[in-house]
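Summary of Year 1 activities. Much of the first year was spent building the evaluation harness for sequence design. The harness presents a backbone, in tokenized form, and records the residue chosen at every position. We chose the following record to illustrate the format because it has been used consistently in internal testing since the harness was completed.
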């Protein structure tokens, strides 16, 4: 796991400065403390920070082919590199290392831009073909690894993290006015936008080609929308278990110590169960909890005892939350108001004391329909078939309050109008009142386009299609990558192996959500392996007790940050509305909204205020 950075000037006579590449790399040294490298080629500069995982001695980057005509910088893991290497050797390619990085170099020589079709893994990489003066970059199919870029007037810069691009004087320090309403609605910025005007990110399964000053983008992979397969439960279960075991074997390849995050939920517990089944000895597991009812430590301990893991845990306090939040927001790169970043950061730091690689359960809820909101939307869909559902919805909108109004007003409305994603902060009608000045709702067209792409698919598939292309890529995986890499820890997510995703996504909805049971097939797979209390308990995720913290020990902290210099309150929000939100939290939960404003204020202070 590593960090990449680089600049390509469109003028062949304009060299890239080594100092600029060094600054970009220095900003993300946490991504790769073990080794560093730079390659300059006239109008091109490539930079690299390495966290050594495979072939510790021979994986130095930037890496080239035999004659120096092709160079690569690569962040991630290619899980099928051994088979790919053998295939390329049979085609006449000669390898100088044992690293998975070198398979990308020779795959480029053999397949060109179609090399991405042969890679199975998590990756963000750039290939420089010196003979053709062509730069090619790609991001993995699910967006596990990040790829940011800025297309200037006469250059293109790219990096693993936004903070590397921020080291370039040419990168604008300006809020994208079209991104802010979407952030307030979703708690993150939907790609390809970022909150920095002009800075973009490759979408999952997207590649970029730059030649002769021309920049082109192409999606090489999307979630399969070619229909639901006909398959029985027993066959589906057998194939799923075989596929997961094969995937876990690949994810266990490493030349460094390896462990697993263990929240006590079904997904991380299932990963540990498969590791045990595959014979992993002395499994090291890591958990975070609180001195409050939200803590899941008892469940993590239950799973640890079942498999005899070497278990490590940590209890967090609200003071630690406040003390670490500015650093966490800075390390997240983008304003992502997901409070689970806090425990994830600390569990990664805990794990890094004894391992360099950790496995986690991200992605299971998205592919299996595990969120309760999916069942709620399915119920509303059934009610919408009842005559006068729309009239009932208008009555709820007018006379009801709270959740009754929220869900009642959805009656009579199609899924495209009532479900915009699993993560919500501010309601649509609150955003214009909160915002000061002119802003545009730029992110919602992206959601509308995703619904158009998924037209005709079952209801569950349409909702998960939206969430996997937005919430998963722009929140969960941003959080997973940044919080692990902030601690120089590689995080692997076997549920998001694209072979697993393609298989599960193609299953009938009834094998994923059956009545009140979400993640049906995964739960069937875990019967007899995990305690029933783990399999059937309600989903919590990584809960953080923000509601009580913002009413108690962190109430003053929230006000102090929001109304401090550089917070952007006066530039972007109406102070009276922010004051009202803080007041309302005394009697009803507004913690999501408060946290979204806190994260934005801290992010603005880090990335914008220095340029004011």
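For this record, the design step produced the sequence shown next.
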């Amino acid at each position: 796991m590593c960090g990449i950075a680089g600049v390509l000037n469109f003028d062949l006579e304009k060299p890239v400065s080594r100092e600029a590449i060094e600054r970009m790399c220095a900003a993300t040294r946490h991504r790769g403390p073990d080794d560093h490298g730079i390659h300059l080629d006239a109008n091109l500069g490539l930079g690299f920070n390495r966290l050594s995982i495979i072939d510790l001695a021979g994986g130095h980057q930037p890496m080239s082919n035999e004659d120096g005509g092709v160079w690569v910088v690569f962040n991630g893991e290619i899980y099928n590199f051994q088979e790919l290497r053998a295939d390329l050797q049979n085609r006449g390619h000669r390898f100088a290392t044992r690293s998975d990085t070198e398979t990308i170099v020779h795959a480029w020589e053999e397949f060109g831009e179609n090399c991405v079709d042969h890679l199975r893994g998590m990756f963000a990489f750039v290939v420089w073909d010196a003979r053709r003066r062509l730069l090619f970059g790609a991001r993995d199919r699910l967006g596990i690894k990040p790829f940011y870029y800025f297309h200037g007037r006469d250059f293109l810069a790219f990096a693993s993290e936004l903070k590397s691009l921020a080291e370039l004087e040419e990168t604008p320090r300006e809020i994208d006015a079209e991104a802010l309403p979407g952030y307030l609605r979703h708690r993150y910025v939907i790609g390809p936008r970022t909150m920095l005007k002009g800075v973009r990110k490759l979408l999952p399964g997207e590649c970029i080609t730059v030649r002769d000053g021309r920049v082109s983008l192409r999606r090489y992979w999307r979630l399969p929308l070619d229909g639901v397969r006909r398959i029985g439960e027993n066959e589906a279960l057998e194939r799923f278990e075989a596929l997961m075991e094969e995937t876990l074997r690949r994810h266990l390849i490493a030349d460094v110590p390896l462990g697993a995050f263990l929240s006590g939920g079904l997904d991380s517990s299932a990963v540990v169960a498969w590791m045990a089944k595959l014979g992993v000895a002395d499994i090291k597991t890591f958990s975070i909890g609180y001195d409050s009812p939200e803590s899941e430590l008892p469940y993590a301990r239950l799973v640890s005892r079942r498999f005899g893991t070497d278990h490590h845990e940590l209890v967090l306090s609200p003071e630690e939350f406040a003390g670490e939040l500015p650093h966490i927001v800075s390390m997240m790169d983008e304003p992502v108001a997901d409070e689970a970043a806090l425990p994830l950061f600390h569990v990664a730091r805990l794990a890094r004391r004894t391992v360099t690689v950790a496995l986690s359960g991200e992605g299971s809820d998205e592919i299996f329909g595990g969120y309760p909101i999916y069942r709620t939307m399915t119920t509303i869909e059934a009610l919408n078939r009842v005559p006068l559902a729309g009239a009932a919805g208008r009555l709820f909108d007018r006379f009801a309050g709270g959740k009754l109004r929220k869900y009642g007003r959805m009656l009579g409305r199609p899924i495209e109008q009532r479900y915009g994603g699993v993560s919500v902060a501010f309601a649509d009608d609150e955003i214009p009142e909160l915002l000061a000045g002119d802003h545009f709702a730029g992110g919602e067209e992206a959601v509308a386009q995703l619904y158009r792409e998924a037209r005709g698919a079952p209801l569950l598939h349409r909702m998960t299609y939206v969430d996997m292309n937005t919430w998963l890529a722009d929140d969960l995986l941003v959080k997973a990558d940044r919080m692990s890499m902030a601690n120089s820890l590689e995080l692997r997510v076997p549920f998001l192996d694209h072979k697993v995703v393609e298989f599960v996504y193609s299953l009938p909805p009834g094998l994923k959500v059956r009545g009140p049971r979400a993640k049906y097939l995964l739960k069937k797979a875990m019967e007899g392996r995990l305690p029933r209390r783990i399999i059937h308990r309600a989903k919590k995720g990584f809960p953080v007790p923000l509601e009580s913290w913002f009413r108690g020990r962190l109430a003053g902290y929230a006000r102090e940050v929001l109304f401090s210099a550089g917070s952007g309150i006066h530039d972007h929000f109406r102070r009276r509305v922010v004051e009202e939100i803080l007041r309302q939290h005394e009697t009803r939960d507004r913690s999501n909204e408060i946290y979204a404003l806190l994260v934005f204020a801290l992010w603005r202070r880090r990335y914008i205020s220095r340029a004011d």
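Residues 62 and 73 are 5 Å apart (CA to CA). Quantitative recovery figures across the full test set are reported in Table 2.
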